[in-house]
Amino acid sequence: MTETFSGSFTQQEPIPDEAIEAALAVLRHGRLHRYNLAKGELGETALLEQEFAAQTGARYCLAVASGGYALATALRAVGVGPGDAVLTNAFTLAPVPGAIASVGARPVFVGVTESLTIDLDDLAAKAGAARVLMLSHMRGHLCDMDRLMQICDDAGITVIEDCAHTMGAAWNGVPSGRQGAVGCYSCQTYKHVNSGEGGLLVTDDEEIAARAVMLSGSYMLYERHLAAPGPEVFERIKYHTPNISGRMDNLRAAILRPQLRALDTQVTRWNERYQRIEAGLRGTPGLTVIERPEAETYVGSSIQFLLLDWAADKVQEALRRCAARGVELKWFGTPEPVGFTSRYDSWRYAESAPMPASDRVLAGIIDMRVPLTFSLEDCDLIARIIRAEVGAVHQS
């Protein structure tokens, strides 16, 4: 009898009881706006920022409305403006070039390797083209951060890290988001903590932090922040920094604080599932598993593999066959964007030239979510289905 999978690839775990109780407390007192505080109250959002700064080892943290807002705020805070070039990955999601375009800047795309990380040779070749790199740790894959930072430091490039898929990850023990000037994280439902939408920004630079707070819409209430620079820093920038409101509210912050305290446990659970699927896929004819570097501590909330040099109709057939058995795979190489999938030549507001080596990789990338609602037995079953259907198409 043919095995099928009946689970959901979009069903998250319930919000933890502790987070629900914290949210109810906010709803009962009604002070959802982050600056609407009772006498002596610190506020959920300010406490979230203080706790996440400590968790990542950052001096400063700002909670905002979304991960995409954090990215655009980081660009503005480091001084990117209209017409400026910003280096970024050819393999990323639409909010990354979107953030660059939102400030009037121009994305300059850097290639992708078969490890699904930014091509450091291509980055070195293009280092003179821009003074800022928005580095996307796409789908949770970290490049050699030591070499990347050496390239950028030598070229005077400021690095903004897009850590939407790497909250809880690290390179050589350094948390993702802590090597560049700014780290930006997402709290959207399909990321590692779930407040529906939301974002976090961390930095050690006091002027970047102060500009980000002002940009987020603090008015002159910056002294209510617990993970921000002192008032003397705001005095230097407050008259020259626009308000582009995008604050996080106390309700979402209340939901997030307990989840962040449990992040290490959740990372372990994701990686158990990832590793079961990865083990089941190894040796499948025609399928390339993405090897993880020893220096990388990853978060396996999704898994990718390559169908390198497959004809497009064969890729589509394999995906159809897996879908018929209940396994939802996403193809990043599709010529037209579908759902969250996309590729650099899809964003026609941004000029780009073909990159044949990267195009070959992009044409073969297959992606799958790994929600924590999957059991380990589910993961074994999913791997068997993919192995059988990909193998069958390859051999045909």
Automatic annotation (TrEMBL):
User: Which residues are in coiled coils?
Assistant: none
This protein's name: DegT/DnrJ/EryC1/StrS family aminotransferase
The molecular function terms in GO held by this entry are: transaminase activity
Quote any Pfam family the record assigns. DegT_DnrJ_EryC1
Keywords of the record: Aminotransferase, Pyridoxal phosphate, Transferase
Species of the source: Ruegeria aquimaris
InterPro entries given for it? DegT/StrS_aminotransferase (IPR000653), PyrdxlP-dep_Trfase (IPR015424), PyrdxlP-dep_Trfase_major (IPR015421), PyrdxlP-dep_Trfase_small (IPR015422)
Q: Which top-level group of life is the source organism from? A: Bacteria
Family designation: Belongs to the DegT/DnrJ/EryC1 family.
